[in-house]
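Model it.
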Amino acid sequence: NYNSAMKKTVFLFVLTILLVVGAAGQEKQRGKKRDFDESEKAAYKQLDARYRNWLDLVTHITFSDERSVFLKLANDRDRDAFINIFWLQRDPTPGTPENEFKTEMEKRFAYVNEYFKRGSPRAGWMTDQGRIYMILGKPNSIERYDDQKGLYPVQVWYFYGDASLGLPSYFNILFYKPHGAGEWKLYNPAHDGPWALLVQTSALDPEDYDNLYKKLYEVSPALCGPAFSMIPNETTSNNRPSLRSNFILASIYE
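Modeled.
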């Protein structure tokens, strides 16, 4: 009948868009995301709340081009078809009643918005911790350094990695509160350096890594490893923070 034919047309239309976008995304350098431009921000604000919520949910697990295509759709029928096919593409067990990937992402989204909004003016999914949790899921373990003298609050999350995805078999991600307040910030050993973790560091040179290592060891020996490298027990040259952190983070975002 007419309705069935129309549904099939919409399905094929959106599927074609997604396949084209997916193919284009494969050709681009992975791991790079861009924020909405002004026209996309305006389109986002015009959406019904349920579609804005869906875009928030998938922000960290989708290509920028997919979001751009979604924002160009003209009616709810096409948007619903787009969302259905988006999840179908990512279903690890096609043909079964449950889409485990969709279920897991919805659980993560609910969790980050409940727990990571604390101490932040932003929604939980927008925070650094929320982003990592949406991508990697629950850490295998967490070490907390919340009330240690001479140290800003620090958390170290540990994960098992998949080598086929460019990740070490085991790695850590460190978060800290700059100057001891505000929301948790993702720490990059190569960019931030251990100087950012220490309280009252005016007498220390941010690039004098030998002295920084000694100072951090005095304050918290167990934190010396994660502060210099995302790979546990990695030995770095002259106590300099490992540059591999940049590649690991890029692989995580990819």
